[in-house]
Design brief:
Elements: H1 5-14, E1 23-27, H2 34-46, E2 55-59, H3 61-70, H4 74-87, H5 93-97, H6 105-116, H7 121-126, E3 130-137, E4 142-144, H8 150-157, E5 168-170, E6 173-177, H9 186-191, E7 196-200, H10 213-226, H11 238-246, E8 251-255, E9 258-263, H12 277-295, H13 301-305, H14 315-331, H15 335-348
Parallel strand pairs: 1-2, 1-7, 2-3, 7-9
Antiparallel strand pairs: 3-4, 3-6, 5-6, 8-9
Helix pairs in contact: 1-15, 2-3, 2-4, 2-12, 3-4, 4-12, 6-8, 12-14
């Protein structure tokens, strides 16, 4: 029996076992729905698990969330969703009426990420895991790992065609949002030799999630008109995205020799265009809870409250958070035995050759 990804991460953190596994983290985006993944990476950061990965893959908003995690600033980075983006009207229909782009991505990167809640780029570069920021390259007609200034990489990874501006130019490539081609790059992580993968999904299961299909199809039509080369590219709108999500259900599964653990938010759903600060704050708590449940550990709330994470006044949300916390406390007494079993599994589990990490 193979250890789970969290078994390996905990053993690495606690120094209880050596291993030759390659553990990857895949972080989905989803525009404002990315707040769920932001909450999840905050838990990884403050449970001292973030630096135990071998590689981290981020697309769209997921790349920004991953960057703040790798810099050790995840709680602050998450607060951008419910403090800064609503105040800056990150998404605004009024801009369309004024002939401007509705998504204020450049302001977010330049003023918020670059200044107000400055991302520690040096810390990201010095982080233990490899960091793969993924964008869609028009020249190569494929998913691309851009090089250059990190903030420009993050801008490219989240550049939504039509809605947030022209393609970002880096290293001779015109780049758009990586989610256009692959919102959940698990296959890429496996191709790179991952033996274990943690996937942070931002969309819950079920058909109740609010999608903006008319905007998606308008964006796709514009993209194919403005950039004819994209007509032969497997862009992922609508039903194709649904199939990708369905192929990665919540829980632990295996694919060939790899172990994949997918963390899925339980709901309530968060829209890609959500601008209500309290709803976004609740989404952050939701993402945090998915990792706490998987790790059977709890993040120190004082750290979160220092960055504006005070729980929503919505009674349903507060009750949900309390119930999840009570559930974790109820199973805490089993954690020591589980850790000993995991250590034994890691010590005896088969591993891939050295090329797999």
């Amino acid at each position: 029996m193979q250890p789970t990804p969290f078994d390996v991460l905990r053993a690495r953190r606690d120094g209880t076992a050596g291993d030759r596994h390659r553990v990857a983290l895949v972080v989905e985006g989803g525009c404002m729905r990315g707040v769920i993944a932001a909450g999840a990476v905050t838990a990884l950061d403050h449970l001292n698990l973030a630096q135990r990965f071998d590689a981290v893959y981020g697309v769209s908003a997921g790349a920004l969330n991953a960057a703040y995690m790798l810099s050790g600033q995840a709680a602050m980075g998450t607060s951008i969703y419910f403090e800064d983006l609503p105040a800056a009207r990150f998404l605004s229909r009024r801009r369309i009426l004024a002939g401007r782009r509705p998504m204020a991505l450049d302001h977010t990167i330049d003023e918020i990420v670059g200044c107000r809640k400055r991302l520690d780029v040096t810390a990201v570069r010095a982080a233990a895991p490899e960091f793969h920021v993924l964008a869609t390259c028009l020249e190569h007609r494929s998913l691309h790992r851009p090089h250059g200034l990190l903030l420009e990489q993050l801008r490219a990874a989240a550049r939504v065609p039509l809605l947030s501006g022209p393609p970002v130019h880096l290293n001779g490539c015109r780049l758009y949002d990586g989610g256009l081609l692959e919102p959940l790059p698990v296959d890429l992580a496996l191709q790179d030799g991952a033996t274990h993968v943690v996937v942070l999904r931002t969309r819950p299961d079920g058909a109740s999630i609010l999608r903006h299909r008319h905007i998606e199809w308008a964006m796709l039509a514009w993209l194919r008109h403005a950039h004819p080369e994209t007509r032969s590219m497997p862009v992922v709108p609508g039903d194709r995205y649904e199939r990708r999500v369905a192929a990665l259900p919540g829980g632990v599964t295996t694919r060939d020799d790899a172990v994949i653990e997918v963390l899925v938010p339980p709901g309530p759903t968060i829209s890609q265009s959500e601008m209500n600060p309290e709803t976004l704050r609740a989404g952050a708590w939701m993402g945090l809870a998915t990792v706490e449940d998987a790790a059977n550990e709890t993040v120190d709330r004082a750290v979160l409250y220092a960055h504006g994470w005070q729980q929503s006044q919505d009674r349903e949300t507060e009750s949900w958070v309390r119930a999840r916390t009570a559930s974790r406390e109820g199973i805490a007494k089993h954690t020591a035995n589980a850790a000993r079993e995991a250590t034994a599994l890691i010590a005896n589990a088969p591993v891939k050759p050295d090329s797999a990490g």
